[in-house]
Amino acid sequence: MLTVVAALIGILIGAIGAAACLLAMSGTRVRAAETARGRILADAERDAETVRRESQVEAREHAVQLRSEIEAEVQDKRLEIVKIEERILQKEEEIDAKLTEIERREQGLGDREVHAKALQEELKEAKDEALLALERLSGLTVHEAKQQLLERSTDLVRHELAREVRQMEEEARADSRRRARALVADSLQRVAASHTAEATVSVVELASDDLKGRIIGREGRNIRALEHLTGVDFIIDDTPHAVVLSSFDPLRREIARLTLDKLIEDGRIHPARIEEMYYHSKAELEEHVRQAGEQAVFEANCGEFHEELVKILGRLRYRTSYGQNVLKHTLEVVHLSGIMAAELKAGVKTTKRAALLHDVGKAMSHEADGSHALISAQLARRYGESDGVIHAIEAHHYEVQPQTVEAVLLITADAVSASRPGARGESLENYIRRLEALEKIATAKPGVAKAYALQAGREIRVIVEPSEVDDDGAALLSHEIAREIEDQLEYPGQVKVIVIRESRSIEVAK
C-alpha cells in the first residue's frame, strides 16, 4: 500500500514538474512572439512612411508637369486668339474700304440719275416740239398718221406673209405630197384590214331551251354560282336556243363562254362542277392568250420578245378600242409602219418592234396609272427594249415630241389604221354632228360661198367668192380654218382643208 501511495505521489510530483516546465517554455515563446510582433510593426510603419513620402513626391512632380502643360496650352490658345483678332481687324478694314467705295459709287449714280432725268425732260420737250412741227407740216394728227401707217403696214405684211406661206407650202408639197400619197397608198393596198368587232356581249347557242332551266338551277343556285365566279351577267330570256353573256371585260366574258360550253358538253351542271369547269376554262384561256401572243410575234417577224411581253400581247386579242380589236389593229400598224420604213430606208426592225408594243398598255391600263402610251413604254423599258423603240412608243400619242423617223412613222401608221373606213365604230348621230361642225366653222368665215366635208370628215373643201377673197386671202383663210378646227373640235388623225377660188386651190392639213 505504501508502495502504491509512493508511486502515486511520485507520479503527481512528476506531473507538476512537467506542467511547470511547460509553463516556463510557453512564457518564453509568448515573449518571443511579442518581440517579433513589435519588430514587424516597426518595419511596416517604416515602409508605410517611405511609401507615403514617395507618393507625395510623385504627386508634386505630376502636378508640376500638368501645370506646365496647361500653361503651354493656354499660351497656344492666346496666340491663336491674337491671330484671329488680327484677321478680324483686317476684315473690318477691308469692309470699311468697300463701304467707302460703295458710298462713292452711290453718290455718282445719284448724280447720273439727276442728269439723266434732266436729259429726259429735254428730250421730251424736243419730241413734243418735233411732233407739233410734223403735224403742222403734214396736216395730220399723230393718231391719224398712226392709223394710215398701220393700214399700209398691215396690207404690206399681209401680202408678203400670204406670198411666203403659199411659196413655202408649194415648195414643201411639191415632192412630199407625191411620195406620201404613194407610200400610204402602197401600204394600205398591201395590208388587209378587218372591221369592228363585238364589244360587250357574247351569245352561247343551246341545243334546246330545256337547258336554260338546268343552267338556272334549283332556286337559281347554278346561275348565281356562274355569275359569282366569272363576274359576267348571264341573261336568260325568251330568246330561243341562246344565252347572252354581258360584260365590259372581254377576258371574263370569254372565260364565262368557255365554262358554259364545257358544262353543256359535260351535262352535269351544279355548283361544284361549275367551279371545276371555271378553273379549267381559265387555264385554257391563259394558254390561248399565250398562243395568240406567240402568233402575233411570229406575224410581226421582228425578233424575239420577253415571255411576259408575249403574254401581254396575247391579252390584246380580247381587248377592243372603239369597237376595233386591239391585237388586229396592232398587227396592221406593224405591217403599215414596216412597209413605210422600208420605203424610206428607216429602221424597219425598230419601227416594227415599237408598233407591236405601242398598245400593250391597253391590256393592263386598269392595273397601272397613266396613259396607255406611257404604260407601254414602261413595259418596253422593263423588258430591255432599245431607246429608239421606247421613244417611238412614248411619242405615238404625243406624250413626248417625236424626235426620230421611226416615231413619226408609228404615229402615221396608227392614225391610218384607226381612221380607215369601218375600222372603228361610231354612231350616225356623232358622225353627222362632226361633219356639221366642220362645215359650220368654214361657212362662218367672210367670203365663203359653200363648204363640204368629205371622206368621213378627213377633208373639207371650202369654195370662196372670187370677188371677195383673192389668192393671198385664200392662203390665209385655209390656215385660219385649220387653226379653229384644231382648237375647237376633237378629231382622230388629220383634217385636210382645201380652199377653192376659181380654178386654183390652196390646202392645209392639220
Written description of the protein model:
By secondary structure, the chain is of the alpha+beta class. Among the domains are: 291-419, Hypothetical protein af1432, CATH 1.10.3210.10; 428-509, GMP Synthetase, Chain A, domain 3. It contains 14 helices and 9 strands. It has helices at residues 2-138, 142-190, 210-216, 221-230, 250-266, 271-300, 307-315, 326-344, 348-357, 372-382, 387-395, 405-419, 428-443, 471-488; strands at residues 201-205, 233-235, 242-246, 320-321, 324-325, 448-454, 459-464, 496-501, 504-509. The strands form 3 sheets. Strands 6-7-8-9 form a 4-stranded mixed beta sheet, with helices on one face. The protein has a 3-stranded antiparallel beta sheet with strand order 1-3-2, covered by helices on one side. A two-stranded antiparallel sheet has the order 4-5. Helix 4 (221-230) runs parallel beside helix 6 (271-300), helix 8 crosses helix 12 (405-419) and helix 9 (348-357) packs across helix 12. Residues 192-198 and 503-510 have low confidence and may be disordered.
Task: Lay out the secondary structure.
Elements: H1 2-138, H2 142-190, E1 201-205, H3 210-216, H4 221-230, E2 233-235, E3 242-246, H5 250-266, H6 271-300, H7 307-315, E4 320-321, E5 324-325, H8 326-344, H9 348-357, H10 372-382, H11 387-395, H12 405-419, H13 428-443, E6 448-454, E7 459-464, H14 471-488, E8 496-501, E9 504-509
Parallel strand pairs: 7-8
Antiparallel strand pairs: 1-3, 2-3, 4-5, 6-7, 8-9
